[in-house]
Request: fold
Amino acid sequence: MTLPHFQNPWALFLLLLVPLLAWDYMRRHQQRRASIRFPSLAVVKRMPPSGAYRFRHVLAVLRFTAVALIVVALARPQQGEALEDVTAEGIDIMLLLDISSSMKTMDLKPNRMLAAKAVFQKFILGRKHDRIGLVVFAGHSYTQCPLTLDYNVLTELLQQVDFGHVEDGTAIGTAILNGVNRLRQSNAKSKVMILLTDGGNNAGEVDPVTAARVAQALGIKIYTVGVGKDGDQPIEVDDPVFGKRIVLARSDVDLGLLKQIADITGAKTYHAQDSQALQDIYATIDKLEKSDIKTTSYYRYRELFMGLVYLALLLILIEAALAHTRFRKVP
Reply:
């Protein structure tokens, strides 16, 4: 529903007549002479003013309000409802998120996975007309959400992603094939996967390069994002003796493998070493993979002027009734 607007806005200039009419009324009221003359006004001045006298200007207020309403009605206020007809297909995008235990590393705040989820959510809510799905993986891979246009449901399912849902490891090849399976029946003009991981392939039965070649054969591009700094990085662990504590653990992102996957499918690879870099990378991918949506907008308007006309007529009738009853003038 759009905001009200005026079909003939130029008519609103006639509202300038209202203050002119009010000025003319006050001028004539001050110059008016009495119709009945009294030899002395001493007694009259001691009399309290009547109710009619206190509200003697109410007729003029009703008249000027009616004039203003008629002017606004002439401007033809309308309330419109916009209808959008989408005439082109968007992009189908599968997000592949690593949830292995190494994603607990805290070089990205608060940790790699939570930082990735925040960027994923921003990326999802910035799209329009594109179907997006989510695959998560560690030692195995599963579909958290199939391709959908319901971004609210997708973001809710994204927030439910956590560690420990599958055995630990990094099965990149399996995750890619899972995403391929979700995209292979797609009729979208562009099919894309965005793979985010912080390690190298060490689990699963499918070689990532082989999986990338399958994706390339089906016209699917795979953007790869390596997340985290190399070397010893702080990570939270569950110690059976001391409970949760932070230790240093070796972290190595296999950028060579990620670049090979992206190159095979005609995409690009990126390395995010902090949260801001991760946001910038997804902003870049967002610009590279924009759908060319053609839309036709229709507007259905509802006229509002008749209500103003009826109200103005009511005020005129009230003025006429009061002028011949309670505020009747002595001739």
Q: What stands out?
A: The CA atoms of residues 18 and 24 lie 10 Å apart. The chain has a mean pLDDT of 85. The chain has eleven helices and eleven strands.
